[in-house]
Design a protein that fits this description.
The chain has helices at 5-15, 70-81, 91-103, 116-131, 156-159, 171-174, 213-224, 243-248, 274-277, 296-308, 311-335, 360-367, 371-381, 402-421, and strands spanning 37-41, 44-47, 52-55, 109-113, 135-139, 177-180, 192-197, 227-231, 254-257, 268-272, 343-344, 347-348, 384-385. With 422 residues, it is of the alpha/beta class. It folds into 2 domains: 5-64 and 310-421, Alpha-Beta Complex (Aspartate Aminotransferase, domain 1); 71-308, Type I PLP-dependent aspartate aminotransferase-like (Major domain) (Aspartate Aminotransferase, domain 2), CATH 3.40.640.10. The strands form 3 sheets. Strands 4-10-9-8-7-5-6 form a 7-stranded mixed sheet, sandwiched between helices. A hairpin with a 2-residue loop joins strand 1 and strand 2 (44-47). The longest helix has 25 residues, at 311-335. The protein is globular, with a radius of gyration of 21 Å. The structure holds pyridoxal-5'-phosphate. Pyridoxal-5'-phosphate (PLP) is lined by residues 115-117, 120, 143-145, 198, 203, 231, 233-234, 258, 268. Pyridoxal-5'-phosphate binds at residues 115-117, 120, 143-145, 198, 203, 231, 233-234, 258, 268.
């Protein structure tokens, strides 16, 4: 029996809020009916009606090699045949932990989780346990997953819904959370356990840290005896071979990773120096665990993905992203559609405004100007899928060949012209 997007959306909405299992997928902020994916390969996804799209969503980051990469499929298939979960340690976990720690300067030990949310949540608990302090400073527009204490001013997932915060989060849960503007060094006193930051903000569109911002945070944390947490769930193993430390030269105390390290299966991890990680149970008093943590399918997919991501891959990723970002800027300039296409390494953003925003307030002004939904739909009709929300970034990866980038740019030129024509 053949399905349609409309029929599946109608069915889905009866049994899942908004018809989806993560709010941005519902198309709420761009309007219309989401395409229901039937299958995907490389840079492309096909919906249940047989429409093909060039995909710049790529699961919001995990698909850095493109969909259904043969090495990932082979690794996952082989792992599945040996059983899907044991509740006992495995070789794959050790190998993935060794691979991740070997690439990140200062990261000595980690704990695998099943999502980025868990990773960030546990990293915060660890920082509080290690310092004996309670206060968390986070930055407006940075997203650290959907844990209660970190949802304040949470960027994309929350902003796309037009909500300022989140119902159901008691005041007590955010009482020790301080929200500061991105790109300004906050006041850090001796109650602060941890300062959490996306080293390159990628959940309010793409916002680059101002020169000196990350080093300034490092210095201010050192002065106050607070820990610095890099939430690298997006930037990790995308920005650079050695993550944001290699890119910025600034080393945090605690890390959270996710997305790329699971190769499209549910994984996250948090880690730190061995000294800090000694606080995690069973060595120390900070409890953290999970039935499916370090799942054998997920570790196999993660390892296979990181194996492909050697140093050469990052040169290629940046080249692809540059072709896309420069091409997009030219397309919008030619069409007379005001837009800024920021790029940081392989990360690409899109703002329909005349300058790259530097903080969440500036982002919101541009993201809410109504252009993005129009462009999004004009482009989707032409076979190119961006994320259905103005606060997301683009995720070009190794599957986006020059031909596919150029085909995307041609579609963007037509879509931009259509937006200008109104
Ligand atoms: C996606 C994301 C998370 C949450 O990860 P999930 O796997 O969706 O729970 C946390 N932090 C950042 C920076 C993210 O981009």
């Amino acid at each position: 029996m053949s399905h349609t997007n409309d029929a599946l959306f109608t069915r889905g909405k009866k049994v899942m809020p908004g018809g989806v299992n993560s709010p941005v997928r519902s198309f709420r902020s761009v309007g219309g009916t989401p395409y229901f994916v039937d299958r995907a390969d490389g840079a492309h996804v096909w919906d249940v009606e047989g429409n093909r799209y060039i995909d710049f969503v790529q699961s919001y980051g995990p698909g850095i090699l493109g969909h259904a990469h043969p090495k990932v499929i082979e690794a996952v298939t082989a792992a599945a045949a040996r059983g899907t979960s044991y509740g006992a340690p495995t070789l794959g976990e050790v190998e993935l932990a060794e691979e991740i720690t070997s690439r990140i300067d200062g990261l000595e030990m980690l704990r695998l989780t099943s999502s980025g949310t868990e990773a960030a949540m546990s990293a915060i608990r660890l920082a509080r346990g290690a310092t004996g302090r309670d206060t968390v400073i986070k930055f407006s527009g940075c997203y650290h997953g959907h844990t209660d204490s970190l949802l304040a001013a949470g960027g994309s997932g929350v902003a796309n819904q037009g909500l300022s915060g989140c119902d159901g989060v008691p005041a007590g849960a955010v009482a020790d959370t301080v929200v500061a503007p991105f790109n300004v060094i906050p006041e850090i006193d001796d109650t602060v356990a941890v300062v959490a930051v996306e080293p390159v903000a990628a959940n309010m569109g793409l916002v680059e840290p101002a020169p000196g911002f990350l080093q300034g945070l490092r210095d201010a944390c050192d002065d106050a005896g607070a820990l610095l947490l890099f939430d690298e769930v997006i930037t990790g193993f995308r920005l650079a071979h050695g993550g944001a430390v290699e890119w910025s030269g600034v080393r945090p105390d605690v890390w959270a990773f996710g997305k790329v390290i699971g190769g499209g299966l549910p994984v996250g991890c948090f880690g730190a120096s061995a000294e800090v990680m000694d606080n995690v149970a069973p060595l120390g008093g900070v409890y953290q665990g999970g039935t499916l943590s370090g799942n054998p399918l997920a570790t196999a997919a993660g390892l296979a993905t990181l194996e492909v991501l050697d140093r050469d891959a990052y040169v290629e990723l940046e080249r692809i992203a540059t072709r896309l970002a420069d091409g997009m800027q030219a397309v919008f300039d030619d069409a007379g559609l005001t837009a800024t296409v920021p790029r940081v390494g392989p990360l690409v953003g899109l703002f329909f405004g005349d300058a790259a925003p530097t903080n969440f307030d500036e982002v919101k002004d541009v993201a809410e100007n109504g252009i993005y939904p129009k462009f999004f739909h004009e482009l989707l009709q032409r076979g190119v899928a961006l994320a259905p929300g103005a606060y997301e970034i683009l995720f070009p990866g190794l599957a986006h060949t020059d031909e596919i980038i150029d085909e995307s740019l041609a579609a963007m030129a037509d879509a931009a012209a259509a937006v200008v024509a109104g």
